[in-house]
Structure formats: structure tokens, C-alpha cells
Specification:
The chain has 548 residues and is mainly alpha-helical. Helix content is 71%, strand content 0%. It is built from 31 helices and no strands. α7 packs parallel to α9. The longest helix is centred in the N-terminal third of the chain and has 25 residues.
Length: 548
């Protein structure tokens, strides 16, 4: 026993918890030595693992988590000591890395199911204290831990922390910047940085016409304390509870989420829409499919909901109509990340509607923005929206667009005037699609009154991709609707010729293709118009500076 007592890190209480057969059985010296070496090695290994999990280096912490998963097969006594040590980490004030390591270790133990419900209750109470920790990584880890507990114990965890989590969200929805002072030099630097980021062609979000005020910059970029982490914590618990959470979705709960959906900060809006996606996926059982085999998961993602599938609260008409309206606003947000988060929630929402009449009501609200995002410049949003269109609409896309033509036209025209140049460009592409893919008789009533004026406005846009898209779309409209476009032909000719001399090669190419469509549609009349402008073709674009 001397060998055991001098083993590194071994305490008396750990020896008392060691298996009874080792305490009561008389063994020879070789066996004593062998047992002592094994226990010492295991203890040293555990100490090293815990030190790694609390390291200041991210890579070391990740290695420590992997190592802990490998050595969780230790005896119950050693596991009990590990749980006690991790709980001490959660109470530590020495550094956020220690608290983070404790949370990650507790999550791993919970996921292995090698713990009691008393241990779960203990770390749940500690998680509530860390929900407003000054370090965001600790706060996010709290959400992961409570999510793992929810997978194991279900809504019991949510009910235990609901009041605190929801109140934290309410308390952090607003933030006072009145006492914050920013120098003019810092303001100009931040404004120019935002402008340079958005002026590039690869940047999706363009700056507003006027220079943003200090308060607006802070609202868009500053953190919002524990708001984002608390919402992600709520989202993790929703996913963990799965279908069981549906019973706790009511109007007051959704009203709180709706406030976050319209928040001034884009990161808060993104998190709120991700939470909406978790609500739908949990209520419909999609979050349970996420852990299924890849083949079954892919089949579930593309399969429509059967008529016999029970309808959850959030899919019902009472809650669903307002929910769909907020999703539509998210699909039209100026920021790509928000659009993507809303797209994820929309797919889960609309494809799980079993009632055809209810599905038609929701499509009337969601279809225009779903359709436009198929042409959005951000690749992630565009590809995901195209996949969603195939999953939700299938081969009935043209019929549905014709059925909701008035809503589609109103939405496209409004989006052609959006602050975001990428949205205006996508709107022009969608208007062109109406002329080339939809039955002409369904589109004709809207050509001269709404669609063509919107394209002419975009023709004069400061952004060359928007001018290019408007030029190509106008050429297609001239070819498909020659009579409706004839009154505007003089204006279109001038704009076509201006693009023909643009300094961007692709803009010139689009203008040439548009003029070819004019010649195809009008024949000799096109030559008459051409003679009016003979010799008046500008040598450079009227929209570009001489130095460009």
C-alpha cells in the first residue's frame, strides 16, 4: 500500500473509493507494485489532460478534449474525482480558460452518460452563473453544455433555466451608447474601412448612400453583451429537446424572438433566425434526424412531409402566419448572413407543412423572396436557395409564379430600389426570368406599368453590375414584348448605346446583345431608330469618370 499512497496526486478519499476488492484482498509485493504503477500512470495522464483543457492555446485545449474522451473508461472512483475537479473549474476566478475547460469537460462527460442526475443539476446551476460571463467563449460553451444536457434529460433542463435565459435576452435587447465617445479620427477611419469593404465586387453589402453615423456604426458592429450567446444557448436547448419542446412554443415566447428578428444589429438578427430554424427543426423532428446515418439524413431532407404527420404549434395557422411573415423579412435582409439563416429556417418551415391549403397561404408570403434569392450574388445563399426551390417547389415553379404573379411583380419592383446593390442586381435577373420563362400572357399586363420602368431605373444605377443586369433584362423584354416596349424604345436606345461604350467589357457585351434583340424584334423600325443616333454614340460611358 505504500506504493499506492505515494502515487502522484492520489488522495485519501480517492483511495476509499477505489474498488473494494483491491482494499480487502491481500496481494504480494509484485501485484502491489503493478497496481501502483497503473494507478499513478492513469492519474498523471488525467492531470495532464486537465491541464491541456485549461491551456491558453486553442490547439492544446482541443487535444485535451480528445484525450478526455479516450480515458473516460476509468473506474467510477476516479470518474467521481474528475467530476469534482471539473466543478471546481467552473467556480474558478483565475482565468476564463479554466472555466472553459471545465464546461467542455462536463459536456464530454454528459455526452458519455457517465454521470448522475445530481451531477447534471450541479453543473446546470453553475451554468446559469456563467451565462453572463465576461468571456464570450465561456458563454457559448454554456450553451453547448446545456444543449448536451437537454439531449439527455429533455425539457427538464429548459424548465430549470427558462426564466433566467429569457430574462437575460430581454435585458440585453437594448444597449445605451449615450456615454460612449468616439473621436472624429476614429469615426472617419471606421467609416472608410466599412466603405472599402463593401465597395469591392466580391463584397455583397454596399454602404448606404449617406455616411453612417457613429451610433449606426456601433449598432452594426458593437457587441450586445450576453444577447447573442443567450440566444444560442436557447437554440442549443431547443435542438436538444427535439419534438418535446413544441409544447413550450407559445405567443409570448415567439414575441420575444420577433423582437430579436428586427434588431438593429445584424449579428443578433442572424442568431435569431438560426433560433427560428432550431424551433422548426426541433418541433418537426429534424434535429433528431441530424444524428441519423448520412443516407437517412439526406432522404429526410429532401422528402416532403406526409399528410399523416402531426402538425406542430409553430406550423399551425394561429402562429404560423406571423412566423412566415418574419421569415419573409429575413429573406429580404440587406446582409447575406441574415438571408442565409432565414433561408435555413424557411426550408425547414415550408417543407413540413402537410395541409395543402395552409401551405398555399404560406407560399403566398414566402414565394417571392424565395424565388429572388436563387439569383442572389452571395454564393452560399444562392446555392442553398436553388436547392430549396427544388425541394419545396419541384417542377411546379412556373405554375406557382403565375398563380402569385401580382405579389411577385410587386416584390421584384420593390427590391429593384433596395439599398443593397446585390439585391437590385438579383431583382433585374428575376424580372428578366419572368419575360423568358413565364407565359407571356401572364406577364404582359405588368410590363409597361411596373416591370419595364423598374428596369429603366436600374439602367441608371451607379453600380455597373446592376446596369449590366438591367441592360440584359431590358433586351429580353424588348424581344418578348415588342409592342409593350415600343413607347419606351427611344429611352432604351439611349441607354443601350451608353452601355455600349462602358469601360467594363461585360457591360459592352450585354449592350450589344440587347441591341441584337432590338433588331430581332423591330426589324426596319430598329434601323430608323439607329439612324437617329448615328454619330451620337458616346466615346465613353456617361456613368464613369474620365480617369477610369
Amino acid at each position: 500500500w505504500n506504493v499506492l499512497e505515494i502515487s502522484r496526486g492520489v488522495k485519501n478519499d480517492q483511495l476509499e473509493a477505489w474498488p473494494q476488492n483491491l482494499q480487502q484482498t491481500r496481494v504480494d509485493e509484485k501485484d502491489k507494485f503493478k497496481v501502483g504503477i497503473d494507478f499513478s500512470s492513469r492519474t498523471c495522464r488525467m492531470e495532464g489532460t486537465l491541464k491541456q483543457m485549461c491551456s491558453k492555446i486553442r490547439l492544446e485545449r482541443d487535444k485535451g478534449e480528445e484525450e478526455l474522451q479516450r480515458i473516460l473508461s476509468v473506474g467510477e472512483g476516479a470518474l467521481s474525482a474528475l467530476q469534482e475537479e471539473l466543478q471546481k473549474f467552473l467556480d474558478s476566478n483565475d482565468g476564463w480558460e479554466i472555466r472553459l475547460g471545465g464546461l467542455n469537460g462536463c459536456k464530454i462527460i454528459v455526452e458519455s452518460r457517465r454521470c448522475s442526475e445530481e451531477f447534471a443539476d450541479s453543473i446546470t446551476s453553475r451554468c446559469l452563473k456563467l451565462l453572463v460571463d465576461e468571456e464570450p467563449r465561456v458563454r457559448f460553451a454554456v450553451g453547448d453544455t446545456l444543449g448536451a444536457l437537454s439531449v439527455w434529460l429533455g425539457p427538464r433542463i429548459y424548465l430549470g433555466v427558462r426564466d433566467v435565459v429569457l430574462q437575460t435576452i430581454r435585458d440585453n435587447l437594448t444597449r445605451d451608447f449615450g456615454n460612449l465617445r468616439v473621436s472624429e479620427d476614429e469615426t472617419s477611419k471606421l467609416s472608410s474601412a466599412l466603405s472599402s469593404e463593401t465597395s469591392d465586387r466580391t463584397a455583397i453589402e454596399s454602404p448606404r448612400p449617406s455616411s453612417p453615423a457613429v451610433e449606426q456604426i456601433l449598432h452594426d458592429t458593437a457587441g450586445w453583451k450576453a444577447l447573442e450567446s443567450s440566444m444560442k444557448c436557447l437554440s442549443a436547448m431547443v435542438k436538444g429537446c427535439g419534438r418535446q419542446f413544441d409544447a413550450y412554443i407559445d405567443q409570448p415566447f415567439l414575441d420575444l424572438i420577433y423582437v430579436a428578428l428586427t434588431h438593429v444589429n445584424r449579428f443578433v438578427r442572424e442568431t435569431a433566425f438560426l433560433l427560428c430554424g432550431s424551433l422548426v427543426q426541433g418541433a418537426t423532428g429534424e434535429s433528431e434526424t441530424a444524428v441519423a446515418a448520412p443516407a437517412k439524413r439526406a432522404e429526410a431532407e429532401t422528402a416532403p412531409t406526409s399528410a399523416g404527420t402531426p402538425t406542430s404549434n409553430i406550423l399551425s395557422r394561429g402562429l404560423g402566419l406571423e412566423f412566415a411573415a418574419h421569415l419573409a423579412k429575413g429573406l429580404s435582409d440587406n446582409w447575406s448572413q441574415v438571408r442565409w439563416a432565414a433561408s435555413v429556417a424557411t426550408r425547414s418551415f415550408i417543407k413540413n407543412i402537410a395541409d395543402e391549403s395552409l401551405r398555399a397561404e404560406y407560399l403566398r408570403i414566402l414565394l417571392p423572396s424565395m424565388c429572388l434569392n436563387r439569383y442572389y450574388v452571395a454564393e452560399g445563399v444562392r446555392i442553398y436557395s436553388q436547392d430549396t426551390w427544388r425541394v419545396v417547389v419541384g417542377s411546379d415553379g412556373c405554375a406557382l409564379v403565375m398563380e402569385h404573379m401580382e405579389n411577385m411583380v410587386k416584390f421584384y419592383v420593390s427590391q429593384s430600389r433596395a439599398d443593397n446593390h446585390a439585391v437590385r442586381e438579383a431583382a433585374c435577373s428575376c424580372i428578366a426570368e419572368l419575360g423568358s420563362k413565364i407565359d407571356a400572357d401572364a406577364v404582359r399586363p405588368y410590363v409597361s406599368s411596373a416591370l419595364l420602368p423598374a428596369l429603366i431605373d436600374c439602367f441608371r444605377d451607379d453600380s455597373w453590375p446592376v446596369r449590366d443586369a438591367a441592360c440584359v433584362a431590358s433586351g429580353n423584354f424588348v424581344r418578348c414584348f415588342p409592342e409593350e416596349c415600343k413607347p419606351s424604345l427611344a429611352v432604351l436606345y439611349e441607354l443601350f448605346l451608353a452601355n455600349l461604350a462602358d469601360n467594363i467589357p461585360s457591360v459592352r457585351q450585354g449592350a450589344a446583345a440587347a441591341l441584337a434583340n432590338v433588331a430581332t424584334a423591330y426589324g426596319k423600325i430598329a434601323c430608323v431608330f439607329w439612324s437617329r443616333f448615328d454619330g451620337k454614340i458616346p466615346t465613353q460611358s456617361v456613368f464613369s469618370p474620365v480617369s477610369s
